[in-house]
Amino acid sequence: MALKGNLRDFSVTQLLNLINLARKTGTLTLEGPDAIAWVSFREGKLIYAQIGNEDGSLTGILTKAGKISPKQAKVIRTHATEKSDKELGLLLINAGYLSQQDILASLREYILNIVYQLFTWVEGLFRFDADVLPPDESITIRLDLENIIMEGTRHLQEYEMLKEEIPNLEMGLTFVERPGANIRDVQLTVEEWKVVSYINPKNTIRQIAKANKMNELDIRRVVYGLLQAGLVEIIRPEGMPLPPQAQKLPPVDTKQQTSLVNKLIDRIRSL
Amino acid sequence: MQTVKMVVTGPFNSGKTAFIQSVSEIDVVSTERKISSEEERIKETTTVAMDFGRITVDDDLVLYLFGTPGQKRFDFMWEILSEGMLGFVVMVDSARPETFREARGILQTFRAYAPTPYVVAANKQDMDDAWEVDDLRIALKLDPKVKMLPCVAMDKETVKSVLLELLYSILEEMKEE
Ligand SMILES: Nc1nc2c(ncn2[C@@H]2O[C@H](COP(=O)(O)OP(=O)(O)O)[C@@H](O)[C@H]2O)c(=O)[nH]1
Ligand SMILES: [Mg+2]
């Protein structure tokens, strides 16, 4: 029988705990607001994960990890379409392109990255199907859940902290114009550069994340760093309409406005 | 008759209700309960409450003070509240550094969202472990141009001075245009 429910009643942390303690084998399907994820376990160990909006094929994973170039990925995709992940992995190892170690490490990173993201899902549905496992041709790993739960909880705390700092991803970013704040003098990581290259009064933080295929945690992390360093500022993006009438006072003449504000000042002074 | 409004925002427990209460001629209408984090998960079912105070200027002019609900998902309320406001006050509990981050988040978002003047009230300055205004300014990453004022929400005089500084900023902005 499938284990089903709502993430609001039973969190991802609790689910993983249950799977770990009950040494369950099967696949957990999570339906979040923006994506679906599948995570598979064998006897309570994490073996595999996929998320709806990402290329989870071995080729995709190795490209993302920088182990093969996008050009190589294209060649593989055109010439080895029929190959399963396992076959492709063997091919790459035998051809001397990559070691087994490389492949497993990339896969591990990919899977963990998905699972850590899931800790931040607080809304959505879950279903656990016992004994449903990824196809035999997939390459699986085997990781203890205890450490993942610990690390995932840390990610969650970080995520919550970042969500407080940057509550709204519909806002835009702009470079701070002040002497000494020159983005060119700062050493940025590749991820940070990617974000910086999209900074433009028209782009929302969410759009920048999307363009860079970054998840909410990653984008918040980068934006937070840039904010902390005083390099960027949050602004209302150009296209975003103002809330009705939020444009200060009704556009009457300044004299009238000034008199109104002066009345308020006098009244408050007299309180 | 003309009504104008100003908004008082800030994290939960920063002193918004107390601030409005100090100068309002009516009892602050607030049904906000102190919600525990356990209850917060079901907040969809709890009503969104807000503080609401009034200062009558004369027969033709009334000032309303609105406090934003102490909920993380303030975005949609913000839009309603900010409609037509003159300016806003960001309240910070100077004695609780664990809330500075949220205050900073609210401030940065609100400032970007509504182009009206605002001031920051460093509230609870009467408490032993309150941070000094200058330190708080750094912690909140405030521009030196932004007015930051010491405040004790139950002390009417400090509340008045916060509101007055906000009004002075509003006046200044009008002159610039
Ligand atoms: N000592 C001190 N306590 C304050 C001050 N302002 C508010 N409080 C207290 O802090 C708590 C939260 O205030 P409240 O106005 O309800 O905060 P709100 O959640 O922002 O509306 C209440 O117990 C107030 O009495 C202040 O300036 N000094
Ligand atoms: Mg209140």
Descriptive report:
The complex is a heterodimer of chains A (271) and B (177). Chain A is α+β, with helices and mostly antiparallel strands. Chain A folds into two domains: 162 residues, no CATH class; 64 residues. Chain A contains ten helices and seven strands. In chain A, a hairpin with a 2-residue loop joins strand 3 and strand 4. Chain A starts with a strand and ends with a helix. Chain B has 177 residues and is of the alpha/beta class. The longest helix of chain B has 21 residues. Chain B has six helices and six strands. The relative contact order of chain B is 0.19. Chain B has a six-stranded mixed beta sheet, with helices on both faces. Chain B is globular, with a radius of gyration of 16 Å. Chain B has one domain: Rossmann fold (3-Layer(aba) Sandwich). About 10% of the residues of chain B have low confidence. At the A-B interface, helix 6, strand 7 and helix 10 of A face strand 2, helix 3, helix 4 and helix 6 of B. Bound molecules: guanosine-5'-diphosphate and magnesium ion. The site of guanosine-5'-diphosphate has 17 residues of chain B, from helix 1.
- Reading off the top of the CATH hierarchy, the class of chain B is best stated as Alpha Beta
Gyration radius over CA of chain A: 25 Å
Rg over C-alpha atoms of chain B, rounded to the nearest angstrom: 16 Å
Helix coverage percent of residues of chain A?
A: 40-55%
Q: Let me know the CATH homologous superfamily of chain B.
A: P-loop containing nucleotide triphosphate hydrolases
Instruction: Work out the largest interface and the residue count of each chain.
Output: A-B, 38 and 45 residues
Ligands and ions found: guanosine-5'-diphosphate, magnesium ion
CATH fold description of chain B: Rossmann fold
What's the helix count of chain B? 6
